[in-house]
Amino acid sequence: MKLNDLSGQRFGRLVVIEKADSQQTPNGTIRTMWKCRCDCGNIVIRSQQNIRNAKHASCGCWKSELTSERKLEDLTGKRFGRLVVIERADTTNVSTRWKCKCDCGKDCIVLAQNLKKGHTTSCGCYRKEVRPKQQLKHGYRHTRIYSVYGKLKDRCTNPDNPSYERYGGRGITICDEWANDPKAFCEWAYGNGYREDAEYGECTIDRIDNDKGYSPENCRIATEKTQANNRRSNLLIEHNGETKTLAQWRDYFGMTQSKAYYHLVEKKRTIQYLIDKGII
Question: Which secondary-structure segment (H or E) carries 60?
Answer without folding.
Answer: none
